[in-house]
Design goal:
Elements (H helix, E strand, L loop, with lengths): L10 E5 L19 H17 L3 E5 L15 E4 L2 E4 L10 H12 L3 E3 L11 E3 L4 E5 L5 H13 L4 E5 L11 E5 L2 E4 L1 H4 L8 E4 L11 E3 L2 E5 L3 H9 L4 E4 L2 H4 L10 E3 L2
The protein binds citrulline (CIR).
């Protein structure tokens, strides 16, 4: 385990949602998100980060990239440095070049994921002793291999795992709760990826709650998931419920909206 818990953060970067989020990528069309409501969810998320002791830099909206508010995907950040990713969706690929100069201002070490593979930050789960890279429709074998090399350069211990079919990102279905515990759907954990860790399973019908976010002494959880909230509170976690119903329409949850690190 690391000396400082991996969920200890004092800095974050977020990006203001652009108007074209209404055209954001989605696997199933449940209707377009309402822009004003997306802005409200995003604003509440920033307040929650600040309340948790995190200093938040808010980047301007990028109207050319509908999904650009989900800054977790084009980059990966650590205390030791940052990696500019190669997003696996064609409409999102250019987001990496937009975030790169921001990272160069904030980190002394910025590595570029080597071409030609692809990898999205949403497929990366950082644990205390290893960094899981989930293969998915957005992260291919070549990208995962290049990312493993970059992670080793930063002193990390990468492990390549599989995301089940029809799950957008590895972290759509799991999150870290503490260095011994993950929150996971049953379908993701069924492959044995979390063997050796304590697993709290999302209650049936609340699989969407799995993309929670541990920040310092609290866990952000979607407010539409009361059974998960009760389960986590019962297990002793301090839960901060946050509205995610609009961003859920474009397959997003609570980790996607920020890059977080300990400076
Ligand atoms: C996409 O499909 O790329 C966006 N609509 C949602 C991205 C969610 N990001 C994440 O889970 N890290």
């Amino acid at each position: 385990m690391s000396a400082t818990p991996v969920y200890r953060f004092d800095n974050a970067i977020v990006r203001t949602p652009c108007h074209w989020i209404v055209d954001g990528l989605r696997a199933v069309d449940l209707g377009a998100p309402d822009y004003a409501k997306v802005l409200a969810e995003h604003a509440a998320y920033i307040v929650a980060l600040e309340d948790a002791g995190v200093t938040v830099e808010v980047l301007p909206a990028l109207e050319a990239y509908p999904d650009s508010m989900f800054v977790e995907d084009p980059a990966l950040v650590f205390h030791e440095g940052a990696i500019v990713m190669r997003p696996g969706a064609a409409s999102r690929f250019g987001e990496a070049a937009e975030i790169a100069p921001v990272l160069k201002k904030r980190f002394s070490r910025v590595l570029d994921l080597a071409a030609p593979g692809f990898a999205d930050g949403g497929d990366i789960l950082v644990l205390g002793d290893r960094v899981m890279i989930g293969l998915s429709d957005r992260t291919n074998e070549t990208g995962a291999g290049a990312l493993a090399d970059a992670l080793r350069e930063l002193g990390k211990n990468p492990v390549i795992v599989r995301t089940p079919p029809n799950v957008l990102h590895f972290k759509s279905d799991c999150s870290l709760l503490d260095e011994e515990t993950v929150l996971s759907t049953r379908r993701l954990a069924a492959g044995g990826v979390f063997d050796g860790l304590r697993i709290l399973f999302t209650p049936d019908g609340e699989e969407g709650a799995a993309n929670a976010l541990r920040i310092n002494d609290r866990v952000f959880v979607g407010s539409a998931f009361p059974k998960t909230i009760a389960m986590l509170e019962g297990a002793g976690y301090r839960v901060v419920p946050l509205a995610t119903s609009e961003i859920a329409k474009v397959d997003a949850g609570l980790s996607c909206m920020s890059l977080r690190w300990r400076a």
